[in-house]
Amino acid sequence: MTGLAELFKVLADETRARIVYLLSKEELCVCDIATILGTTVSNVSHHLRVLRTSHLVRFRRDGKQVYYTLDDDHVIHIIREGFDHVNHTTRTDR
């Protein structure tokens, strides 16, 4: 259970959740993520480090650029299930 709690703790941060959502759509470099989120490269790098440590994202280098993607399909399923749950809860609360 500790591992599961840690996973949800990492994803509980809104910026990290947004990064994971973006990466569920496509591979992105740090600078593109920062632009989309309207934040600094330094801030994005910090959050990506946390996500990398938790094995949620992986990276590859292409020259000076570093590109990130989700580590595996399990991460995509977790995010999609989370969105489905939130959307279902929102619909039933009306």
Topology, pairings included?
Blueprint: H1 2-11, H2 14-25, E1 28-29, H3 30-37, H4 41-53, E2 57-62, E3 65-70, H5 73-92
Antiparallel strand pairs: 1-3, 2-3
Helix pairs in contact: 2-4, 3-4
What does this structure look like?
It is a single chain. With 94 residues, the protein is α+β, with helices and mostly antiparallel strands. It has one domain: Winged helix-like DNA-binding domain superfamily/Winged helix DNA-binding domain (Arc Repressor Mutant, subunit A, Orthogonal Bundle), CATH 1.10.10.10. Helices cover 67% and strands 15% of the residues. It contains 5 helices and 3 strands; from the N terminus they run ααβααββα. Strands 1-3-2 form a 3-stranded antiparallel β-sheet. Helix 2 packs across helix 4. The longest helix is centred in the last third of the chain and has 20 residues.
Mean pLDDT: 91
Spatial ordering of strands, largest sheet: 1-3-2
Number of helices: 5
Beta-strand fraction estimate: 5-15%
Q: What do we call the CATH topology?
A: Arc Repressor Mutant, subunit A
CATH architectural group? Orthogonal Bundle
